[in-house]
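Colleagues,

For the teaching module next term, I've prepared a clean inverse folding example: a structure given as tokens, and then the sequence designed for it. I'd like students to try predicting residues themselves before seeing the answer, so please don't circulate the second half yet.
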């Protein structure tokens, strides 16, 4: 039961965190109070509606997890791919953002109102770091170099409202993408690769939590003589 509680608790934290941060949950769902109940305050009604939406999405997510087999083996590409597939099904049925969609939404909200290109690029870097993403290709430094080149050419800081200057910068970015072999038409493939990286990281966290839970349980007197099972043999469906 210790492992079940740990995994279920972690699942709740993950899904509640994903759900409550999504903008669509600010749209109220019609709420019918009992006839004898006093009229609800607007704030109270909004909280109730958010709670009902969160519960609905959470129940939907658990419904998928009860049916689909997940192997806790972050070192097995097949297990990682299956976990990513299950999580995609969860997101589609529970109407949740994918990681790339959440990043896109974060960029849109965080960069709204930023007037200059330099602050924009620095904000993108901050978002990447907070998301735990790596810049293995060194694209950020290349983009900053491109900005330096454009600003040197126009002899002033580049504002995002400067259409001519931004066209120059986009042309430099196109050169960078070509150098790195990045094609706009391949964006779905890059998104899939990102989801697989995230799936692997999440499986590593689940494996760590499962091992910690089993180690804790093994210290209890009644389980002292029992052999600890392999994490890969665990079926999460039995703990939900």
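(Answer key — instructors only)
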């Amino acid at each position: 039961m210790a492992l079940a509680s740990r995994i279920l608790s972690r699942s709740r934290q993950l899904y509640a965190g994903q759900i409550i941060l999504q903008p669509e949950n600010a749209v109220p769902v019609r709420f019918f109070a009992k006839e004898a109940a006093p009229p609800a305050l607007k704030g109270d009604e909004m909280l109730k509606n958010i709670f009902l939406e969160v519960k609905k999405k959470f129940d939907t997510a658990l419904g998928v997890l009860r049916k689909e087999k997940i192997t806790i083996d972050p070192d097995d590409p097949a297990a990682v791919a299956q976990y990513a597939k299950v999580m995609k099904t969860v997101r589609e049925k529970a109407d949740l953002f994918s990681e790339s969609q959440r990043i896109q939404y974060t960029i849109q909200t965080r960069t709204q109102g930023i007037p200059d290109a330099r602050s924009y690029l620095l904000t993108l870097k901050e978002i990447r770091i907070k998301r735990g993403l790596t810049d293995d290709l060194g694209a950020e430094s290349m983009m900053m170099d491109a900005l330096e080149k454009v600003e040197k050419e126009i002899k002033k800081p580049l504002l995002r409202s400067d259409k001519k200057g931004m066209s120059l910068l986009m042309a430099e970015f196109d050169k960078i993408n070509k150098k790195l072999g990045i094609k706009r038409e391949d964006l779905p493939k890059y998104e899939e690769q990102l989801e697989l990286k995230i799936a692997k990281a999440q499986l590593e966290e689940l494996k760590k939590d499962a091992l910690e839970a089993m180690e804790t349980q093994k210290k209890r007197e009644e389980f002292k003589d029992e052999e600890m099972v392999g994490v890969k043999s665990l079926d999460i469906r039995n703990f939900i």
